[in-house]
């Protein structure tokens, strides 16, 4: 089945626990939306409080979205959104996000630094590279 994507879509993740397609889109740099596409095709938009640049799976039933100063976690089933600040990096423009196998979140910023967060969301490690970080695998 082929279905239309939300306008401005630039990232998508299949969330296996809910079998939903989760799509990140933006109509302006300071306004983004996560749209949950249920297996039956119904679309539920969840507006984010500001812009967003990247999205990743964040554990069963959840996705994480990189936002300024940290990331937002969306519970796909309940549509509940919570914001998580990267302690000490509240003004950072994060452009990439991933969840490691051990559950830790990794964020990359526009200045070329990759941050690994500890369980309490403080920076456990950082590595400065020479280019903008737009993707983490």
Structural commentary:
- With 137 residues, this protein is mainly beta.
- Helices cover 0% and strands 52% of the residues.
- The protein is built from no helices and twelve strands.
- A hairpin with a 2-residue loop joins strand 6 and strand 7.
- The two termini are 28 Å apart.
- The mean pLDDT is 92.
Mean pLDDT: 92
Number of helices: 0
Structural category is: mainly beta
Question: What global shape is seen?
Answer: globular
In terms of DSSP E residues, the strand content is: over 45%
Strand count, sense and closure of the main sheet?
Answer: 4 strands, antiparallel
Strand order of the largest sheet: 1-2-3-4
Percent in helix:
under 10%
Order of helices and strands: EEEEEEEEEEEE
Pick out the low-confidence regions: none
**Head-to-tail CA distance between termini:** 28 Å
Gyration radius over CA: 14 Å
How many strand segments?
A: 12
Q: Which short descriptors sum up this protein?
A:
137 residues, mainly beta, 4-stranded antiparallel beta sheet, 12 strands, 0% helix, globular
Put the structure in a nutshell:
With 137 residues, the chain is mainly beta. It contains no helices and 12 strands.
Topology, element by element:
Elements lengths: L8 E7 L4 E9 L2 E7 L5 E5 L6 E4 L4 E6 L2 E6 L5 E5 L8 E6 L5 E5 L3 E5 L5 E6 L9
Antiparallel strand pairs: 1-2, 2-3, 3-4, 5-6, 6-7, 7-8, 9-10, 10-11, 11-12
């Amino acid at each position: 089945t082929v279905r239309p994507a939300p306008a401005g879509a630039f990232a998508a993740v299949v969330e296996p626990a809910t079998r939903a397609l989760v799509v990140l889109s933006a109509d302006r740099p300071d306004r983004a939306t996560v749209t949950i596409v249920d297996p039956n095709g119904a679309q539920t938009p969840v507006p984010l409080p500001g812009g967003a640049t990247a999205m990743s799976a964040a554990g069963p039933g959840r996705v994480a979205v990189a936002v300024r100063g940290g990331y937002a976690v969306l519970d796909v089933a309940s549509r509940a959104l919570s914001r998580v600040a990267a302690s000490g990096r509240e003004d950072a423009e994060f452009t990439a996000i991933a969840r490691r196998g051990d559950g830790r979140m990794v964020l990359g910023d526009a200045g070329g630094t990759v941050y690994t967060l500890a369980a309490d969301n403080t920076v456990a490690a950082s590595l400065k590279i020479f280019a903008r970080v737009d993707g983490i695998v």
